[in-house]
Amino acid sequence: xxxxxxxxxxxxxxxxxxxxxxxxxxxxxxxxxxxxxxxxxxxxxxxxxxxxxxxxxxxxxxxxxxxxxxxxxxxxxxxxxxxxxxxxxxxxxxxxxxxxxxxxxxxxxxxxxxxxxxxxxxxxxxxxxxxxxxxxxxxxxxxxxxxxxxxxxxxxxxxxxxxxxxxxxxxxxxxxxxxxxxxxxxxxxxxxxxxxxxxxxxxxxxxxxxxxxxxxxxxxxxxxxxxxxxxxxxxxxxxxxxxxxxxxxxxxxxxxxxxxxxxxxxx
Length: 267
Prior knowledge:
- The termini are far apart.
- The chain has 12 helices and no strands.
- It has helices at residues 2-26, 30-42, 46-60, 64-79, 83-96, 103-117, 126-141, 148-175, 179-192, 199-215, 219-239, 246-266.
- Helix 3 packs antiparallel against helix 4 and helix 11 (219-239) crosses helix 12.
- By secondary structure, it is mainly alpha-helical.
């Protein structure tokens, strides 16, 4: 019986709250709406707060209160986990109120929303690059900010993700034995990220891709491609003389030399 009473009281409370909110939406008292929107925001009821703030924004457009309302709207989206929407509202705030005391914070939050949108490395990394660019803009604009260490940390994390994405994309061609495409992708990855933590593996895959391409080529192209593979071998061993891949690399060199030696004999 006591449980039934408690449930009835709770239901009545919720119904009363909804009824109060519905009356508020229909009210023409904008000052009251603003006050209640701030109260909803402070209790993390972001959905109700956002609805009220969005109703008030066109009413207060052109006044000093519009700046604060726009700031609240951005954080309401953020509080609801809508990073795409929040990022849009933070960036729109910066365009509309470039000289606002909230500008620094909103620029950081715009970058952070991109950061939160950043997907796993195998997926498209547009948001990752946008996050890097936005954090770098923040660093350039506010070099003395206390947020700089966070920005640098996030940039490093995003750069690592781009490096890994590049590695995975190149490896995908290599694993599928698409050697012409693999060679291009591996070379681009090494060029774009010369300090990659995957550099040794990338260089070995490039060597093997060139060796396999030579082996599978038509006779008229084999000699040139075996010579290219030989050059790649020396580039690899010069940089990684103690590589874990050395045995396989040496075996490839033996095969390359065996092929090229035929031309030495003929000459």
